[in-house]
């Protein structure tokens, strides 16, 4: 049984673009670099060769990882979602009940999460706490810095 990975169309496109770049640009470039380094002779002391082989290993590993994630991706068109409860794809505005700091996130799949860009993994403790809740609800979240309390001020799918 393969477990599906929820993903927005944007996240799927980003991973697909990275995979294409690795296969069409990075892979051929590293193969050329290995061939060029081989021409320099003794491979045991050839730093360029070893660096290129290491880079090749990274590229091949990342290609396999991306192919697996894309094969298991369940693309969810968030433009077709609506409602008042927090679920995958929701844009959520929260206020920290202790600091009154407002924060806004979109709940996305784990492969797209980027907290700095406001993309919150559906698997994160905060997302788990707010799933199924509505504007006006308060939640308690266990974080690495201790228990925090948030109030949901807005839920949308635009």
Automatic annotation (TrEMBL):
One of the record's GO molecular function terms: translation elongation factor activity
Domain Transcription elongation factor GreA/GreB C-terminal residue range list: 84-157
UniProt entry keywords in alphabetical sequence: DNA-binding, Elongation factor, Protein biosynthesis, Transcription, Transcription regulation
InterPro entries recorded: GreA/GreB_C_sf, TF_GreA/GreB_CS, Tscrpt_elong_fac_GreA, Tscrpt_elong_fac_GreA/B, Tscrpt_elong_fac_GreA/B_C, Tscrpt_elong_fac_GreA/B_fam, Tscrpt_elong_fac_GreA/B_N, Tscrpt_elong_fac_GreA/B_N_sf
Entries under SUPFAM superfamilies matching the protein: FKBP-like, GreA transcript cleavage protein, N-terminal domain
Residue span(s) of domain Transcription elongation factor GreA/GreB N-terminal: 5-75
NCBIfam families xref list: greA, PRK00226.1-2, PRK00226.1-4, PRK00226.1-5
Family: Belongs to the GreA/GreB family.
Function: Necessary for efficient RNA polymerase transcription elongation past template-encoded arresting sites. The arresting sites in DNA have the property of trapping a certain fraction of elongating RNA polymerases that pass through, resulting in locked ternary complexes. Cleavage of the nascent transcript by cleavage factors such as GreA or GreB allows the resumption of elongation from the new 3'terminus. GreA releases sequences of 2 to 3 nucleotides.
PANTHER family linked to this entry: TRANSCRIPTION ELONGATION FACTOR GREA
Protein name: Transcription elongation factor GreA
Protein source organism: Benzoatithermus flavus
Gene name as annotated: greA
């Amino acid at each position: 049984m393969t477990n599906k990975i929820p993903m927005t169309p944007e996240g799927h496109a980003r991973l697909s673009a990275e995979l294409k770049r690795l296969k069409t640009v990075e892979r051929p470039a590293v193969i050329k670099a290995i061939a060029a380094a081989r021409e320099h002779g003794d491979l045991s002391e050839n730093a360029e060769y070893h660096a290129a082989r290491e880079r090749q290993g990274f590229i091949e590993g990342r290609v396999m990882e991306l192919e697996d994630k894309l094969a298991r991706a369940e693309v969810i068109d968030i433009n077709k979602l609506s409602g008042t409860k927090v679920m995958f794809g929701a844009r959520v505005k929260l206020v920290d009940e202790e600091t009154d700091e407002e924060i806004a996130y979109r709940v996305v799949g784990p492969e797209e999460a980027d907290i700095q860009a406001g993309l919150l993994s559906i698997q994160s403790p905060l997302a788990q706490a707010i799933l199924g809740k509505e504007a006006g609800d308060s939640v308690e979240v266990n974080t690495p810095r201790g228990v925090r309390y948030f109030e949901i001020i807005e839920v949308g799918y635009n």
